[in-house]
C-alpha cells in the first residue's frame, strides 16, 4: 500500500500578531527519499518557555511545505492537480485539512473568495478542472452526459447535517453489509410505505452550477467561538464530488423507492407470523405457555405473507442489480464514472490551554465538544497509520468520522490522497503549531517505509 502524503502550510502573520514575534522555522530535505524535515524554534522575544518547549524537530516525514506568501493556487497545483487524471480513471482521492482553530484550514480547503481563482479553495479549484475535463468527454460522445454529483455535510457526534438539504439532521449507521450509511429521518408515505432517504446529491452539469450549490450549502455550516476566534468551525465538513450520469442517479433513486415499498410488506409478514404463533399457545395458571388445543396455526396465511415479502425483496435486488449494470455498462465506455474527490475540513484541534498558557475557561458543553473533536482526530490518525502499516485490523469504528470515511479510504490508494497541516507562524500559537506538526510527523513516520 502506498503512503498518504503529508504537507505543511504556513499561513501569513495577521496584523495584530506582527509585534509579538514569529516562530523561527527551517527545513531540510532528504534527497534520497525526497522527504522534508521541519524544525521550529520559539521567537527570541518569548523567554517564558523552557528550553524543551522552545525548539522541536520532525523526522524526514513531510512531502513539502507551503510558505505564507503562496496562494491557494500553489497548494492546489502541488497537492490536488496531479491526481485529477486518477479521478478521471474512476478512482477515489481524499484530502484532509488538519490544524488548530484559526490556522487556515477552511481557507485552504474551501476558500472565502469565490471570485478570485487564485484563492479558490482546493475543492472549487478541483471542481473547475474536473468540469472542464468532463466537458471534453461529453463533446466526444453524445451517448453519455457526465456531470459532478455534489454532497456536502458536516459531522457532529453521531449525527450528520445535510448542508444541501437545509441542514437536515441525518444519522450514521452501519448496515448488515458492514457498509456505513448516512440516512435522513424516516418519512411515512401513503399505503404504509416508509422511506429513509440517503444524504442529498446535487447533479451539477457545469462549474458555475456547482459553485452556486456549494456556496448555498456552506451558508448552513455551523460555527461557534473557540479558543482562537469567534467563527471557528466546530464540526467536520465533508465535500464529496463524484462523476455521475442521470441514469446512475435514477437507478440509485429506484433502489430507495423499492426499499420503501418493501417496508410495509415485510412488517405485515412479521405481524402475521407473530399473530399466528401467539394464537397457537395459551398461558396456564402457573404462568407457563402450552399449545392451544383450540387453534391450529394458519400456515397458508403465513406462507402467503412470506411469499409477498419475497416478491418485494426480489424487486429490491432487481433494482440493485440494475444500478450495478448501469454503472458497469457506463464504465465499459468511460472509466471516469464513479471517480470521487473527497475534501475534509476537519474541526479545529483543541488544546487544554490558551495562547498564554493559562487554563481555558470553558462551559461543560464546550469541554465535551472539544473532547469529541480530539477523539475524532486521534481516531483518524490511527486509521491512517494502520492502513500505512498494512495492519490486519483498521480501527474504523473508533469514531463516527472514521466510520463515515471508511468507504472512501477503502476505495482509494493512499498515494492519491494527502493531509495538509495548516499552521500559524505566530509566537503565541507556538504550542498549537508544534502539536499540529507532531500530528503530521506521526502520520508521516508510519508512511516512511511504504514509500
What does this structure look like?
InterPro entries: Kinesin-like_fam (IPR027640), Kinesin_motor_CS (IPR019821), Kinesin_motor_dom (IPR001752), Kinesin_motor_dom_sf (IPR036961), P-loop_NTPase (IPR027417). It is found in: Cytoplasm, Cytoskeleton. Residues 3-446 form the Kinesin motor domain. This protein has 11 helices and 19 strands. The radius of gyration is 26 Å and the shape is globular. The chain folds into 2 domains: 4-46 and 54-115 and 122-174 and 201-216 and 226-247 and 340-449, Kinesin motor domain (Kinesin, 3-Layer(aba) Sandwich), CATH 3.40.850; 255-325, no CATH class. Strands 1, 5, 6, 7, 8, 9, 10, 11, 12, 15, 18 and 19 form a 12-stranded mixed sheet that branches. Strands 2-3-4 form a 3-stranded antiparallel sheet. Strands 13-14 form a two-stranded antiparallel ribbon. With 451 residues, the chain is an alpha+beta fold. Helices cover 39% and strands 23% of the residues.
Amino acid at each position: 500500500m502506498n503512503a498518504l502524503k503529508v504537507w505543511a502550510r504556513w499561513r501569513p502573520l495577521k496584523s495584530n500578531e506582527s509585534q509579538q514575534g514569529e516562530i523561527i522555522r527551517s527545513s531540510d530535505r532528504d534527497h534520497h527519499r525526497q522527504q522534508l524535515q521541519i524544525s521550529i524554534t520559539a521567537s527570541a522575544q518569548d523567554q517564558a518557555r523552557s528550553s524543551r518547549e522552545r525548539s522541536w524537530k520532525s523526522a524526514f516525514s513531510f512531502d513539502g511545505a507551503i510558505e505564507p506568501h503562496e496562494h491557494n493556487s500553489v497548494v492546489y497545483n502541488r497537492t490536488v492537480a496531479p491526481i485529477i487524471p486518477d479521478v478521471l480513471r474512476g478512482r477515489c482521492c481524499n484530502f484532509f485539512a488538519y490544524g488548530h482553530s484559526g490556522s487556515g484550514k477552511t481557507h485552504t480547503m474551501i476558500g472565502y473568495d469565490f471570485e478570485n481563482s487564485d484563492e479558490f479553495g482546493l475543492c472549487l479549484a478541483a471542481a473547475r478542472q474536473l468540469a472542464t475535463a468532463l466537458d471534453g468527454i461529453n463533446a466526444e460522445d453524445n451517448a453519455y452526459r457526465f456531470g459532478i454529483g455534489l454532497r456536502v455535510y458536516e459531522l457532529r457526534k453521531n449525527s450528520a447535517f445535510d448542508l444541501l438539504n437545509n441542514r437536515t439532521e441525518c444519522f450514521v449507521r452501519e448496515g448488515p453489509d458492514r457498509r456505513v450509511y448516512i440516512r435522513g429521518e424516516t418519512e411515512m408515505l401513503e399505503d404504509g410505505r416508509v422511506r429513509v432517504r440517503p444524504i442529498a446529491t446535487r447533479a451539477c452539469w457545469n462549474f458555475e452550477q456547482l459553485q452556486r450549490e456549494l456556496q448555498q450549502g456552506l451558508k448552513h455550516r455551523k460555527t461557534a467561538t473557540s479558543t482562537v476566534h469567534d467563527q471557528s468551525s466546530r464540526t467536520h465538513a465533508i465535500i464529496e464530488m463524484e462523476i455521475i450520469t442521470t441514469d446512475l442517479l435514477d437507478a440509485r433513486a429506484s433502489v430507495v423507492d423499492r426499499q420503501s415499498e418493501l417496508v410495509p410488506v415485510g412488517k405485515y409478514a412479521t405481524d402475521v407470523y407473530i399473530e399466528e404463533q401467539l394464537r397457537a399457545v395459551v398461558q396456564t395458571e402457573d404462568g407457563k405457555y402450552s399449545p392451544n388445543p383450540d387453534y391450529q396455526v394458519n400456515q397458508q396465511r403465513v406462507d402467503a405473507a412470506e411469499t409477498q415479502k419475497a416478491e418485494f425483496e426480489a424487486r429490491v435486488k432487481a433494482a440493485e442489480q440494475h444500478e450495478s449494470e448501469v454503472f458497469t455498462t457506463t464504465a465499459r465506455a468511460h472509466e471516469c464514472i464513479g471517480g470521487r474527490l473527497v475534501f475534509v475540513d476537519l474541526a479545529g484541534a483543541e488544546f487544554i490551554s490558551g495562547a498564554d498558557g493559562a487554563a481555558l475557561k470553558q462551559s461543560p458543553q464546550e469541554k465535551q465538544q472539544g473532547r469529541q473533536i480530539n477523539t475524532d482526530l486521534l481516531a483518524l490518525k490511527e486509521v491512517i497509520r494502520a492502513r500505512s502499516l498494512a495492519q490486519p485490523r483498521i480501527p474504523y469504528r473508533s469514531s463516527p468520522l472514521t466510520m463515515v470515511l471508511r468507504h472512501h479510504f477503502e476505495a482509494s490508494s493512499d498515494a492519491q490522497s494527502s493531509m495538509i497541516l495548516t499552521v500559524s507562524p505566530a509566537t503565541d500559537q507556538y504550542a498549537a503549531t508544534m502539536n499540529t506538526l507532531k500530528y503530521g510527523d506521526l502520520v508521516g513516520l508510519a508512511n516512511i517505509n511504504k514509500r
